[in-house]
TrEMBL record:
This is Putative membrane protein. The chain crosses the membrane at residues 12-35. Keywords: Membrane, Transmembrane, Transmembrane helix. The lineage of its organism: Bacteria, Pseudomonadati, Campylobacterota, Epsilonproteobacteria, Campylobacterales. The keyword Membrane applies. It comes from the Bacteria.
Length: 40
């Protein structure tokens, strides 16, 4: 049971890391898009 709980927490933190990465990439894309609009 303890091992099962640990693996569940591990997969949960992995999911959170994935979401953070997706959000970070989205913010980078939007900021580059806004910079491109300001330059032109």
């Amino acid at each position: 049971m303890r091992l099962n709980y640990g693996s569940k927490v591990n997969s949960h933190s992995f999911l959170i890391q994935g979401l953070v990465l997706i959000i970070f990439l989205g913010i980078m894309q939007v900021s580059f898009y806004l910079i491109g609009i300001n330059l032109t």
